[in-house]
Design goal:
InterPro entries: Helicase_assoc. This is Helicase-associated domain-containing protein. This protein has 346 residues and is an all-alpha fold. The chain folds into four domains: 91 residues, no CATH class; 77 residues, no CATH class; 62 residues, no CATH class; 71 residues, no CATH class. It is 47% helix and 3% strand. The protein contains 13 helices and four strands. The protein has a two-stranded antiparallel sheet with strand order 1-2. A hairpin with a 3-residue loop joins β1 and β2. α2 runs parallel beside α4. The termini are far apart.
Length: 346
C-alpha cells in the first residue's frame, strides 16, 4: 500500500488488526466485570448493559456470558498472549472445578435452594416495600413466628448462593422466582445504587449534596422511601471520600454529576456559609451570639443544619482570621461577614 494512503488511514483511526482490536475490547469487558463483581464467574445469559456509565462505551451490548463460554470452549486454540492475559485476570477455565473456601467444590442442592426460596418469600412479605429483597452475606433464620419451625435457627450463606448464581449453578425455576421478588444477586452494586438514590433525594430536598458527617435519613419523613430510612448517609459519604482512589471512573463520574463535594474541609465551609446566609436572612445581620446553636425542628432552618454550633464556629473564624485560606475569607467577605463585630448577648 502507498505509504501516504496508509498514513491517511492511520490518522482516521483505521484498525488494521481486527482480531487484536476485538481481543482488547473483550479483555476490557472482562476487566470491568471483575472490577464491578469481584470475580469472572459470568452468568451465561449476561449481556453488558447499554448506556451504562459503569461500563466503557466500547463494551456496551457485548454478550459477555456467551463470550466466556466460547473462551472456555476454545482454550487450546487461543493465542498464547490472550490465554496468558486471561490467566493473570483469574479467568475460570473449568467452571465445575471452581473451588471455594478450603478447597471445597461449590455445590448447592435443590433442596437447599428451595429452602432459601422459602426464606426469601417470607422476608418479601414481612418487609415494608416490594422494590427488592436482600440479605447480608449470612442470614440466620429467627426462632420466632412467622418463620417455619423446620427453618428456625438455620444459617444461610447468602454469599455462596450469589456465587453459585454467577456460575450458573442454580435451578432456573428457583432463580426466576427469586428474580420476581427482586432478590439482590450483587450486593455491592445494590448498595451503590441505594447510595446514589439517597444522594439524589437529599439533593432534591436540600438543593445540594453537602451531607453532614452524622446525617441519618429520618425515619418519619415521607420524602424518603422506607428502604432508605435510618441509613447513615453522612457516614457513607465520609467513607466514600476516604476511599476515592479505589472508585472506578464511572462511579466518580456519577458522583460528580451530583456535584459531590470531595474535600471535607470545603464541605464544612459550604455548610457554614449556608447557615450564615440563613441567619442573615432571618436576623438582617451576621452578629451571631457566641452560644447560638441552629435549632432543631424549626421550619425556618433546613434540618440538615440542625444543632450546628454556629456561634462557636463564628467565634473560631474570627480568632483564626490571619491563618484562614484566602478563598475562604473572600467567601465570607462576599456575604458581609463582620470580622471585628461585638457579639450579641443571648
Amino acid at each position: 500500500m502507498d505509504p501516504a494512503r496508509r498514513q491517511v488511514l492511520d490518522s482516521m483511526g483505521f484498525i488494521w488488526d481486527g482480531v487484536q482490536a476485538n481481543c482488547k475490547k473483550n479483555l476490557l469487558a472482562l476487566e470491568t466485570y471483575k472490577a464491578i463483581h469481584g470475580d469472572l464467574l459470568v452468568q451465561s445469559s449476561f449481556i453488558v448493559p447499554d448506556q451504562d456509565p459503569k461500563w466503557p462505551q466500547d463494551t456496551w451490548n457485548i454478550n459477555l456470558g456467551s463470550l466466556v463460554y466460547r473462551l472456555r470452549d476454545s482454550k487450546d486454540s487461543l493465542l498464547p498472549e490472550m490465554r496468558d492475559k486471561l490467566n493473570v485476570m483469574g479467568f475460570v477455565w473449568n467452571i465445575r472445578e471452581k473451588k471455594i473456601g478450603s478447597g471445597r467444590t461449590l455445590k448447592i442442592s435443590v433442596a437447599k435452594q428451595k429452602q432459601l426460596l422459602q426464606v426469601v418469600e417470607i422476608q418479601y412479605k414481612l418487609q415494608d416495600h416490594t422494590e427488592f429483597t436482600t440479605f447480608g452475606n449470612n442470614f440466620r433464620v429467627p426462632s420466632t413466628s412467622p418463620w417455619p419451625e423446620h427453618l428456625q435457627g438455620c444459617n444461610f450463606n447468602i454469599s455462596t448462593f450469589r456465587t453459585a448464581y454467577r456460575m450458573n449453578l442454580l435451578n432456573r425455576s428457583i432463580v426466576a422466582k427469586l428474580d420476581a421478588m427482586g432478590f439482590v444477586w450483587d450486593d455491592n452494586q445494590h448498595q451503590w445504587k441505594l447510595f446514589l438514590e439517597a444522594l439524589q433525594i437529599f439533593k432534591n430536598i436540600y438543593g445540594h449534596v453537602e451531607v453532614a458527617k452524622y446525617f441519618e435519613i429520618p425515619a418519619e419523613d415521607p420524602q424518603w422511601p422506607v428502604y432508605l430510612k435510618a441509613m447513615k448517609l453522612g457516614i457513607r459519604v465520609s467513607n466514600i471520600r476516604s476511599r476515592r482512589t479505589s472508585l472506578t471512573t464511572e462511579m466518580t463520574q456519577e458522583l460528580d454529576a451530583l456535584n459531590f463535594v470531595w474535600d471535607a474541609e470545603e464541605l464544612h465551609r459550604q455548610r457554614v456559609l449556608l447557615a450564615l446566609t440563613k441567619y442573615q436572612e432571618l436576623n438582617d445581620d451576621l452578629l451571631v451570639p457566641q452560644k447560638f446553636i441552629v435549632p432543631e425542628d424549626d421550619p425556618d432552618w433546613s434540618s440538615d443544619l440542625a444543632n450546628m454550633q454556629l456561634g462557636a464556629i463564628v467565634n473560631r473564624i474570627r480568632s483564626t482570621k490571619n491563618s484562614l485560606p484566602k478563598e475562604w475569607k473572600e467567601q465570607l467577605n462576599n456575604i458581609g461577614f463582620k470580622w471585628n463585630a461585638r457579639k450579641k448577648s443571648l
